[in-house]
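Quick one, C-alpha cells below:
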C-alpha cells in the first residue's frame, strides 16, 4: 500500500502541466493522495501498536508471537474459557451433591439417635413395670412422660388394609365360621 501511494504521489508530481481548465486530474488526485497518505499513516501506526501488544501478550502467556498466529491464539483462548466455565459448573454441581449427601447422612444419623432414645425410654418403662413395687418412686412421672411424648404408643403395629369387597359388613361374609350352622350361606359367599 505504501508503494501504491508513493507511485501516485510521483505520478502527480511528474504529470505534465496542461492549459486545459477542464482537466482536474492533478487537483482531484492531489486531495485523494493527501487523504490516502493520512489514512495510511494512521493504519500503519495502529498496526505497529497491535504488533507490540501481541508481542507483549506472547511474553505474558509464554508463547512465541512469530510462530503462533493471532487467530490460533484467540481460538485457543476461547476454547479454554469454554472448558473453564464447564469445569466451574461441574464443580458447583459436585459440591451441591456432596452437601446433599452430607445433609441426608446427618438426618439419618439424627433419626437413628432419636429412635434409639425412644427405644431406651420404652425399655426403661418396661423394666420399671417388670420390677413392680421395688422402686415405686417416679413411676407415675415416667408414665406421664411416656404418655405425653407418645413413646408408649409408637411401636404398635399398624393395621393392614383389608383386601376384597369392603361393601359387605356382615360377619357371615367375612368369616365363614360365624354363620352358626348355616353352611349354604357361608359357601356361597366364599
Amino acid at each position: 500500500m505504501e508503494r501504491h501511494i508513493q507511485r501516485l504521489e510521483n505520478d502527480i508530481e511528474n504529470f505534465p502541466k496542461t492549459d486545459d481548465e477542464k482537466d482536474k486530474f492533478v487537483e482531484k488526485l492531489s486531495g485523494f493522495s493527501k487523504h490516502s497518505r493520512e489514512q495510511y499513516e494512521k493504519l500503519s501506526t495502529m498496526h505497529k501498536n497491535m504488533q507490540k501488544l501481541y508481542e507483549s501478550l506472547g511474553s505474558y502467556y509464554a508463547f512465541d508471537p512469530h510462530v503462533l498466529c493471532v487467530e490460533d491464539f484467540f481460538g485457543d483462548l476461547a476454547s479454554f474459557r469454554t472448558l473453564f466455565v464447564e469445569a466451574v459448573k461441574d464443580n458447583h454441581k459436585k459440591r451441591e451433591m456432596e452437601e446433599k449427601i452430607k445433609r441426608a447422612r446427618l438426618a439419618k444419623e439424627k433419626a437413628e439417635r432419636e429412635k434409639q432414645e425412644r427405644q431406651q425410654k420404652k425399655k426403661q418403662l418396661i423394666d420399671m413395670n417388670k420390677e413392680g413395687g421395688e422402686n415405686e418412686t417416679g413411676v407415675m412421672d415416667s408414665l406421664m412422660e411416656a404418655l405425653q411424648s407418645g413413646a408408649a404408643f409408637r411401636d404398635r403395629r399398624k393395621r393392614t388394609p383389608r383386601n376384597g369387597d369392603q361393601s359387605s359388613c356382615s360377619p357371615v361374609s367375612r368369616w365363614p365360621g360365624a354363620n352358626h350352622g348355616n353352611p349354604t350361606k357361608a359357601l356361597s359367599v366364599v
